[in-house]
Amino acid sequence: MSEKRMIISYVHDSPLHESLETDYRSPERLLRLGFTDVVIADQMSGCLYGMNESLISRINAAGDAGLGVWLMDDLFTLPVDSEAGCPGKESSWEATAKAIRDVIEKVPSIRGMVFRYGETFSSPDSNYKRIDLLKCQCIDCSSIDEITRRRKVIEFLETVVCREMGKRCILRLWDLGEDGIHANRNLQAKVLKKWAGDPRFFVSVKHTMTDYWRHQPWNPTIQNEGPPRLIEFQCEREYEFIGILPNWQGIEWSQGPVECGERGRTGLANKQPLDWVGSWVLPLGGGWSKRHAKSELWADMNLHAAIALTKDPHCDVSDVLSDWLSDNGIPKEAQGLFEKSPELILRLRYLDVWRLLNNQYWMPAENWFRDDNFVPGACAHIANTVAENGMEDLLKSERALASAMARSHLAEAESLPVCEHTEFIIGSYQWAVDFAEWTEEIWSILLSNAPLNRSTCKEILLQRLSDNPIPPLSVMD
């Protein structure tokens, strides 16, 4: 079975920035790494009305190299002047069916199409609009409940893409929070009952219960019955310093999240889909920021883990990391340090005190720091709540511990034998120290000024960054 699993590459561009320049778009490199498939068009650029010569050329190049090609879009994507756009109008489904047929007729060599719903990005082309079929409450669809809407998507895509056009179709179950179809086993089971059994129809879910944070249980829907299933893995970790810091995910993906009490009970070694057809891997991208890391090294480290675990979910990830170090000319003495990087990330990014006060799956630590931004409203809320509960000293000691851990890891990095990546490795650990010490100080300032409103908190953060910049970080507007 392992050799038959698809390993799909998808570079996730930010909706707010230019497309990422990376060799992870090179078909030849993807093949060498072990990928079997690639996503060429995504929900930013779209494909339903965007089949230009440039896109067709990229599709042909990937196919000629030996990769299976997938095209992706959001439901509904429609011409901006179309009256269609809600699930209550048959014209919405008819227009989408025609657009799907047109795409496949233009590029019949593609392996399949990918659709998601539950979140939509605006089309970069002003001639088209995207409508969230779950949120529309117009008169035509206000009586259609969410389960019916979702079931209609299953029936529609299986019929049009798989049966009529003879292609594979992936439905990315993509809604937010812990109560949606992505994480809720019962809701997902109810909706997927409408699957008519075509083996070319797949569903795809993240390995985490909600989003790519820590403090996330292994997605409870992974072993649901129903269509064949893919699992999604993000290598650069958008919420955890977007590739600036080492953040080894191999052990988490293999054995489950230790912070959730699941180590050795979940992960791919213990909880695979009943019909697992492969993995959807994000080498780079995710989130809303541009790239800041000077190297793809840390993303590449996780990429190799995702590929190895897809091929053999019972592999020893310590061996995977060892092989990756050797392949990249990094001294073997670095292994122990890199294997401890998940502990450092937990200390830097998350707040144990906040989890005691408000244990939440969606946005752990209130998302006080997102991508490359401090979030003033979240920071104010945390500071106020901690102060109200008389737990200021606990938070301060927690941040001091993060600083001490970061300094210890930096000392280890500096003691490693020199290699071609030495400058980037030491720079990463130095940045971790800078972030830890900066945030240790800022939390002390915020707590001493509580209670805070968002505006005052923002002023404090901006002033602190002005006095002591920590590139590339900024404050969210």
The percent of residues in helical segments reads: 40-55%
Mean pLDDT across residues: 94
Strand content of the residues, in percent? 5-15%
From the alpha carbons, calculate the radius of gyration and give it in angstroms: 23 Å
List the total number of helices. Answer: 15
Q: What profile does the largest beta sheet have?
A: 8 strands, parallel, barrel
Unreliable runs: none
Number of strands: 13
- Taking the alpha carbons of the first and last residues, their distance comes to 49 Å
Describe the 3D structure.
This protein has 477 residues and is an alpha/beta fold. It is built from 15 helices and 13 strands. The protein has helices at residues 27-33, 53-65, 90-106, 146-164, 185-192, 250-255, 297-311, 317-327, 334-339, 341-349, 352-357, 376-388, 392-414, 422-449, 454-467, and strands at 6-9, 37-41, 68-74, 77-79, 112-117, 128-130, 168-173, 201-206, 229-234, 276-282, 369-370, 373-374, 474-475. An 8-stranded parallel beta barrel has the order 1-2-3-5-7-8-9-10. Strands 11-12-13 form a 3-stranded mixed sheet. Strand 7, helix 5 (185-192) and strand 8 (201-206) form a beta-alpha-beta unit. It is globular, with a radius of gyration of 23 Å. The termini are far apart. The model has no long low-confidence stretch (mean pLDDT 94).
